[in-house]
């Protein structure tokens, strides 16, 4: 008896390849517990999709592994395994399969699951930030950082929110050796992996450029305008998971805009909302909610874009 068939889509394989260095770096930072968390999330997401597609006579798509990996990388390193599994199941089930599976979901499934546990288990998602390992072998030689003071320090984004002018050194912010979500701390590594996605055409450059431009414009206006909790634009972009979000979540080919003009608008909307939420809300970062809001308006943006193009013809 053969096992369940898996349909390996080329764009999804490229996304997984781009994520591989980030996964390795996250293990170095936070230990092998990260690898087990990733494996559990992928197994749970695979099980959910398989339970549906076997009834439809369809294969499991490799997109489910992208969903599970992105979801796991969006979590704090010390989150309990069972909470991560709850979020995985919710994201795969209610963010994807209830809409009919691959290609039919309205919202990004990984962020759907994260938003659910973010509002359900707020303390675990916002108050337990693990200090990363430094030096070699780093987390490659440890299960997790269990030192008494390992889960004490706020993320750079939280410090910026509290008004710190320089929450971390630029070397740490760019390298990613700082507290934060599992996969969203290293600005330089994220940028390199994201550029690989653009080079291989696995992500839309229009969304990425539009998103970064929208973020920088709004963040600059808030900063120059003297908004109380507005950090300088470059520091804000490098200190959190914004770059990870704009490259890997906002560019989801299903839940993002499908037209080229719409992608520019959608990207700018996500970037601008990321800044607005981070500066003016109670949350230290706004990319998750910004992408989900962008998903909500993506069909309308596409509809308006097509209507405008039809009028010009």
Can you give me a brief rundown of this structure?
With 313 residues, this protein is mostly helical. The protein has helices at residues 10-30, 33-56, 63-73, 81-94, 109-120, 122-126, 156-161, 170-175, 187-199, 205-224, 233-239, 242-249, 260-280, 287-312, and strands spanning 6-7, 60-61. The longest helix is centred in the C-terminal third of the chain and has 26 residues, at 287-312.
Structural account:
By secondary structure, the chain is an all-alpha fold. It has two domains: 7-126, no CATH class; 156-312, no CATH class. 62% of the residues lie in helices and 1% in strands. A two-stranded parallel sheet has the order 1-2. Helix 2 packs antiparallel against helix 3, helix 2 (33-56) packs parallel to helix 4 (81-94) and helix 10 (205-224) crosses helix 11 (233-239). The longest helix has 26 residues, at 287-312.
């Amino acid at each position: 008896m053969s096992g369940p068939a898996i349909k390996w889509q080329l764009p999804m394989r490229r996304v997984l390849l781009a994520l591989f260095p980030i996964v390795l770096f996250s293990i170095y930072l936070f230990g092998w517990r990260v690898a087990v968390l990733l494996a559990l999330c992928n197994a749970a997401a695979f099980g959910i999709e398989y339970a549906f597609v076997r009834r439809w006579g369809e294969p499991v798509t490799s997109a489910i592994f992208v969903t599970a990996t992105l979801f796991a990388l969006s979590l704090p390193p010390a989150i309990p395994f069972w909470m991560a599994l709850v979020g995985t199941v919710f994201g795969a089930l209610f963010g994807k399969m209830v809409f009919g599976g691959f290609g039919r979901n309205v919202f990004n499934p990984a962020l759907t699951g994260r938003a659910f546990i973010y509002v359900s288990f707020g303390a675990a998602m916002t108050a337990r930030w693990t200090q990363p390992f430094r030096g070699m072998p780093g987390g490659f030689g440890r299960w997790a950082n269990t030192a008494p003071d390992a889960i004490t320090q706020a993320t750079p984004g939280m410090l910026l929110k509290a008004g710190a002018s320089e929450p971390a050194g630029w070397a740490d912010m760019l390298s990613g050796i700082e507290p934060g979500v599992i996969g969203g701390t290293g600005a330089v590594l994220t940028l390199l992996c994201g550029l690989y996605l653009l080079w291989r055409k696995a992500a839309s450059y229009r969304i990425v450029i539009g998103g970064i431009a929208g973020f920088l414009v709004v963040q600059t206006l808030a900063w120059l305008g003297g908004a109380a909790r507005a950090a300088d634009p470059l520091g804000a972009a490098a200190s959190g998971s914004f770059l990870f979000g704009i490259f890997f979540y906002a560019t989801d080919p299903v839940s993002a805009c499908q037209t080229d003009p719409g992608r520019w608008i959608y990207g700018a909307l996500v970037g601008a909302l990321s800044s607005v939420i981070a500066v003016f809300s109670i949350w230290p970062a706004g990319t998750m909610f910004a992408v989900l809001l962008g998903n909500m308006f993506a069909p309308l943006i596409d509809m308006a874009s097509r209507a405008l193009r039809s009028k010009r013809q």
